C-alpha cells in the first residue's frame, strides 16, 4: 500500500513540478507491428542497412538544409508476388526535450503511404500520434513543402512535436530518394 501511494505521489509531483519529461517513454508500436500495419500481413519484409557515403550525406543535407547525423539507415522492404510493394524506415527526431520515434512507409514511386508513431517520450504534444494528424502526410512526396501551417495543419499545444514529425518525413523521403530512386 505504501509503495503504491509513493508511486502516485511521485507521479503527481512529476506532473505538477514539470518533471514529466523524465517519465519513461510510451511505446505504442514495435518495428514489427509497424511494418505489419503499413505493409499488410501478406507482405514479406526484409531489412536492408544502407550506409551513407560522404557524397550522399552532403546531398541529403543540402536538400534538407540541416545536418544529418545518422551514418546509416535500416530500411524495411515489403515485397509481394508482384515485387517491391513499399519501403519503410524508422527515424527519431527531437521533440521539445526528447526524441520521437516513428515509422515512415514509402511507395515505390516515392509517395508517403503511412506514418506511425512508435514511441513518444514528451509530457505534452502526444496528439501527433493521432490518425487525423498523421493522415495529412499520406500521398505527399519530397516535392511537397511538408511545413506546419502550409500543407500540414498544426496541432495546438504540439507545434514542436508536429514540426519534428514533418522534419522526419522530409528526411525519410530525401534518404529514400538518395538510396533507392534510380
Which helices and strands appear, and what pairs or packs with what?
Blueprint: H1 2-17, E1 26-27, H2 31-39, E2 44-51, H3 54-64, E3 72-80, E4 83-94, E5 99-106, E6 112-120, H4 131-134, H5 159-180
Antiparallel strand pairs: 1-6, 2-3, 3-4, 4-5, 5-6
Question: Could you name the key traits of this structure?
Answer:
182 residues; alpha+beta; six-stranded antiparallel beta sheet; 34% helix; globular
Describe the protein's architecture and organization.
By secondary structure, the chain is an alpha+beta fold. The chain has helices at residues 2-17, 31-39, 54-64, 131-134, 159-180, and strands at residues 26-27, 44-51, 72-80, 83-94, 99-106, 112-120. Helices cover 34% and strands 26% of the residues. The protein has a six-stranded antiparallel β-sheet, with helices on both faces. Helix 3 (54-64) crosses helix 5 (159-180). It starts with a helix and ends with a helix. The model is unreliable at 5-11 (pLDDT under 50).
